[in-house]
């Protein structure tokens, strides 16, 4: 496939991450701009990599065809790498260029992916321009499920459950109303309007597209059989919530501007500090 729509391009933005102990989660590609240089990273949650900065992960990559689209071939890698940990939130990231170079050396083909850029991020001021209720899209691998033949993620649709412009109880946290299951940790959450939208002032933007990286899923409230409610990291293994606890179709996300906290760390790497 050569993706044409924004939705089709998001099929190539994520990977299904699997730990050697059988846990699974979601990672996505993000491009950081540092001193005019593009630094491509793979982003997920700390708890997806078992809070281990040297965790080994398995995942499949799409390979590029002669037409510079998806060749239909997938390449399974086992990647032992260093994960950079966000200073305050459940986020981590790792460099992908060494991996992509090695895949090319072994296969003679480039990795085919689509990358989120910094211009998809809304800062705190611009988030307040959004409405309290916005339609959202999450891309990932709930319960580890995915299209195994084509190596495609699954889409989940929902709505903002808290106002995107205001923090929900904690710094840089928001809530979405959608089904969030084990394996969804690390999933990017977007606002995607491909055929027009209406802003909170009632202005209609006919035929105009809107694409915003709202945040990254990391937690969700669960309810016990006795009715008690607690908030837990979205598990990476199904057995973590069976028997006595169920997800509540709500998910907590880290707002995307927190990704920019990685930039000072990346600059130190570039400067050799």
Would you give an account of this structure?
It is a single chain. The chain is mainly beta. The chain has two domains: 113 residues, Thrombin, subunit H (Beta Barrel); 140 residues, Thrombin, subunit H (Beta Barrel), CATH 2.40.10. Helix content is 11%, strand content 40%. It contains four helices and 17 strands. The strands form three sheets. Strands 5-4-1-2-3-7-6 form a seven-stranded antiparallel β-sheet. It has a six-stranded antiparallel beta barrel with strand order 8-9-10-17-14-11. It starts with 5 loop residues before the first helix and ends with a helix. About 2% of the residues have low confidence.
- The helix/strand series, from N terminus to C terminus, equals HEEEEEEEHHEEEEEEEEEEH
Number of domains: 2
Rg, rounded, reads 18 Å
User: What fraction of the residues are assigned to beta strands by DSSP?
Assistant: 35-45%
Structural class: mainly beta
Helix amount, in percent? Answer: 10-25%
> Remind me, CATH topology of the largest domain?
Thrombin, subunit H
Main β-sheet, in a few words? 7 strands, antiparallel
Protein name: Serine protease
InterPro entries: Peptidase_S1_PA
GO molecular function: peptidase activity
Keywords: Hydrolase, Protease
